[in-house]
User: What shape does this take?
Amino acid sequence: MAGRAKYWASESSSSSGSETESEEIVVKKTIQKKKKVVQAIYTDDESEDEGRVVRNLKDRRFDELSEHIKKARNMRKINDFSALLNTFKDYHTTLSKTAKVIEKEGLPRFYIKELVELDDYINAKWDDKDFKKKLSKQGSKGLTTLRQRLRKYFAEEPKTAEELTKYRENPDASEEEEEVDAASSASDESDDSMSGTSDESDDDLSDSGSELSGSSDESESDSDSDFDSDIGDDPDNEFARYTIEYFLKKDKTSSKADKKVRKEKKKREQKEHKEEEDDDWTAVDPGTVGKGDLKILLTGEVQIFPKDVEINAKNVVQKLAEITAMRTPKEADRQNKILFYKKLREMAIEAKTGLGLEIKIRLSTISACYDYNPKHKDYMSDESFANALSETLELVQILNKNHETLILSDNVQDDEESLTDQPNEDGKWHCRGSLVHTCTKLDTEYSKLLQNSDQHSEEYRMRLSNNCKIMQIFNEGTDWALLQADKQQICQMYLLKIKYIYYRHDSQKGAEGSQELIEKFCKYIYTNDETQRIRTQAILYNIYNLALHDKWFQARDLMLMSHLQESIHNADIGTQIIYNRTMVQLGLCAFRMGQMEDAHQALTDIQSGNRSRELLAQGFSMARERTQEQEKTERRRMQPYHTHINTELLECVYLVSAMFLEIPYMAEKEFDSRRRMISKQFHYQLRNSEKQAFVGPPDNMREHVLAAAKALKVGDWKKCIKYLINPKMNQKVWNLFAETDKVKDMLQKYAKTQSLRVYLFSYSQFYDNISIDWITENFDMSSSEVQSAVSKMMINEELKASWDEPSRSLVLHKTEPTRLQNLALQLASRLNQLTESNERLCESKQGSNFTAFYQSNRMRDWSRNNNRRF
Amino acid sequence: MVASPIEQVQIDPVVALQIAKCFNDERAQDEDRIGQLTGYIDRSSNVLEVTHSIPSPVETEDNFDEPERYALDYLKYIREKGCDHLQVGWYTSSLNSEIFTRSFLNNLVSFQMNLTESTVIVYDPLKTAQGHCSFRAFRISQDYIDMIKYDAENDYWPEPTLKELRDGKISTKDIFEEIPVALKTSFLANMLIYELEDRDSFNPRKSFLEPATSASLEKHLKLLDKVVDEVVNDSNRFNQFQKVTGKNQQQRQTWMAKRRQENEQRRANGQDELPLDEVNSVHKLPEAPSRIEPMLRSVQMKEYTDAVADFATKSLGKLFITDAFQKSS
Assistant: This one.
C-alpha cells in the first residue's frame, strides 16, 4: 500500500457558482502566487516500503537526512565545528523540502535522536574549558555559532523542543508510536475520500468571504520562504496546521489557511473547466468525483476513479483537467502522470466517451511526455521520448483512420470541442490541437536528444535509430494532412520530412529515391507555401541535396534564381545555418566538378576567419568569449552529428581550389604592383611555410597542400600530384567523396593544366619557341588539351604567343615591358609612394602652406633640371 | 694629439690578392667573412699603407675565442718576419653594393674608437669578376664619432637620438666617408705586367661592347625597390609618430592648464601646490622611431642609385660606340 499518492481532488462544487466575476479575478491572482504550494500530499506507510522499486519522496528525503546525520557524527568525532554547522544547515534545507511529510507525521524519530545527541555534544564541549582553550580560533567561533543556532532553533520550535524532552525521558517508546500512527492513517484514509468531502466544502463556503479579501495572501506566500527556519511546527504559522490531523478529520476546526489553499485549488479547477466546457459544464456534482483518488496501487494498477463512480464524459473531462493540473516537480511524478493519462484513456475508451475526448487525452499525454524541467536538464529522457514517439504514432494512426469524422485543428473554439460521447451537429468530432505542432515538437526534442549525447557512443546510435519511427510518423502525418487538403500543413509536413532526408546520398542504404522525394516535396512547397521561411528552407535543402548528388548546374541555378545570397543575412539564425551548410555543399560539388573558381568562392566566406565549425553549427570556436547564456543558445543550434560536414575536407578543398587559382595568378602577375590576393588564408599559410628555415616532409593535410603548391609554383606537376594524391591524403580527405576516383582524375588533369600555365608564365621568357610535342611529353597531356589550355591563355591575353602549325610549335613573342622595364616601373611607383608620404610628413610638420611652397619649389627645380638637360 | 685624417689608402697588391682569394674561396660565399689589415701610417702625406691582411678563421661553436688568439698569433709571426704589424683596420666583402648595415656601422665605430686611423676595405667579388676591380675604403666621419657617447669599457654606445642627430647636424651623407684607394704595385711587378701584355695582346672583339650588366642591373633594381619600400615604411612610421606627438602635446597642454588652475585654487585655499612634472607620468611621450636605421637605409639607397647610374653610363657609352661602329661600317 505504500507510495500512494494522494491529490486534492478537483472539487468544482455547485455552490461556488454564486461567486461573482470580480472574485474570480482575485482568485486568479492568488493562484499564480500559490503555484509554489505543493499540491500533492503523500500518505505513506513505512511498513511496506521495501516492496517498491520506485521510492517515494519521503523516503528519499529521509535518506538524505540520515546521510547528513551520519556525516555530522563523523564531524563530531573530529571536532570540526564549521563543517558541523554546515551539516546543521543541511538538515534545515532537507527538512524544508520534506515539510509536508513532517507536518503530517511529525519529525522522524532518528532526527530527534540526532538533535538530542547534538545538543548534548555541544553542551559538553561548551562546558569543557580546557577543550575550548585548545581550539583554534576558527573552531571556537564555529562552536559558538553552532550553540547559538541550536538555542535559537529550540526557541523557535517549541514543539521540537518538546519532542526532545519527551525523547530524553523515553528514548525507546517512539518506534511503536510511529507504527500506530501509520496504521490509523491508513485505515482512515479510505473513507476519507468518500465521506468527508461535503462538510468540508461547507466549511469552505463559510470562510470564503474572509479569504478572498486577500488579507492572508502575504502571510501565505511568506510561509513558503520561511520553511527554512521554522519547519512547519510553528504554531504561529497558519500553514503549520495543515497537517495530517486535518485530513483525518480529527480536528474539525480547520484553520483558514489550509482551506484557503484548497479553496484556491477548487477555483482553479473550476476555472479550467469553465474554459474548456463553457456554460454546459459549470454545474458538476461535487459528490460524484471525490478528491484524492488518483493512486497507483502496489500491484502497478492505476486507480483514478473511486470504485463505484460511473464513468462518463463529464467525469473524464473533469479528471483530465485534474491530472493536467498536477504539478510534477519530480521525474517520478511525471511518469505517474503519464500512467494516469493512459489509464484515463483506457477507461474513456471503455466507457465510450467519444473520439474527441480520446484525442484530447492523447494530446495531453504527449505534452506530458515532453514535460521536463529545462533548468536542470536540457533534454528529455529516452524513456519519455519513446513514450512520446509511440503516443504520437498512435495519434496519427487514429487520425488517419478517422480522417472523415475527425477534425483536429487549432481553429476549433472552446465551445466547439466535442467533449461528449456524441459528435457535433455536423456529425464530426471537433478537437483542438495541431498535428504539425506535435510533429515539430517531436522533431525539436529529438534533435535536443541527439545534441546531448556523445557522438561516438552507443547511446547516440540508439537514439539515432528512432529516425525511422519518426519518419513513419511524418509519413502518416503527411497522409493525414493530404487528406485534410490543408496546404500550409502539407508544406510544413513536407519540410519536416525533407529535413530528415536531404543530407543523405542516394547511394546510402535506406536513402534510395530521396532525390525524387525531395524534388516532389520542394516543388509542392514552392507553389503552395505562403510563409517565406518554409519556402526558403525548402530551397536550401533542395540545393543541398542537388549539390550532394553532383548536380552542379541545377544546384547553382537554383541558388542564383532564389536570390538568397542577397537576402540571407535578414533570415533567422537557423535558416542562416542551413544556408551556410548549403553553400559549403555547393562548394564541394563545384570542386568535384572541377569548377575551382566557384568552389573557392562558395567556401571562402565560411573558411575565412577560422570560424567554419561555428558557422556550420558543428562546434564552437574557442576564440570568442561568450556568456553562459549565449553558449547555451549556441549549443541548442548545433547540428546533430550525423549531418555534419567534415571540416578538414572543407579546408582541404578550399586550400586546393585556392592553390589552383592563386599559384598561376602569382606567376602571371609577378611584376604587377597592383596584384591582389585571391585567398588571404592560403597566402597566410604559404607565407608561414616559406618562413620556416627547414621544411620537413609533409605530415598533415595542410602541409601536403602547401608542398603541392610549392611544386606547382615551379610547374612540377608530378610532385604536385604526388603531394595531393597519396595514401595519407586519400585516407584523410579524398575517400570522403562518394566517387573518389573521379575526383582524383579531375585533380590530376587540373594539376597538369595549371602547372603548364605556371610554367609558361614563369619561363616563357627564356624560350623563342616551344614544340607542342615537347609539352605533351613533359606534361603528359594530349596535344588537343595542350592546344586548348594554351589557346585560352592567348585569348585572355595572358600569354603573348602564337601557334605555328606547320612546325607544330608555339612561337613566343618578346614584348615590352621586359623584366627590367617592369622592375623600373615598379620602382617608379614605389618612389611615387615615397614622395607622397614625404609630402604628408612635411605637411604635418609645416602646415599646408609649406606643401604649396614645397611643390612650387619642386616645380622650379624640375624645370631648371629640364632646361639644363636639353 | 689630434692627427690629421688619412687622405688616401694605398693597398699592396699582395693584400688585394689575399682579400680576393679569401672571398673567392667557395665556403666564403654566403658568410660575412672579415679579416684584419696591418700596415703603417705615413704621417707626412697622410697615407695609410696596407701591407698585409689576416683572414679571420671561420667561427664555429667550439672555437669561439679562437679568432682573437689566431689574430694575435698571426700578428706575432708577421712581426717576427719583419712585416708591419700595426693594425690599421679590417676588410669585408659586399655583393651588389649591399654594404651599409647596422652591424657594419657598429663594427666600424668600435674599430675606430680603438684606433682612430682604422678604415674598412670593402671588396666586391662580383664586380671584380665582371672586370671592374672593386676595392673601396670607408671610415666614420669625425662628427659622428664626436656625437655618440662611447663607453670604452663595454665597447658600447647608445643609439643617437633624434635630438642629438639634429643638434650634431648629422645628415645622411655625414656618417660615412669614403677614402680614395690606390693600388700600388712594385716596379718589378709592373715590369711583369708589361711583359704579359706583350705576350698575350688585348683582344677587343671579345665582349668588349656587350652591355653585360643586365642581371646585375635587375638585381640592383630589385634591391633598390626593396629599400625604397622600407624607406616608405619608415616615413609612414615617422608620420605616425608626428601625429601621436602632436596629439600628446595637446593633451599635455590641457593637462598643464588644468593643473595650474587647480594650483591657483589651492594656493587661494592655502593648500600645498601639486607638482607640475607629474605630466610626464600621466601623458608619456611616445617613443620616437629609430633614426639611425632610416639613415643607413638612405645611405644604402644612395649607394644603389650610384651603382645603377654607373652601370647605365657605362652601358650608354658602349651603345654609342656600337652606334658609331654600325654607321661607319
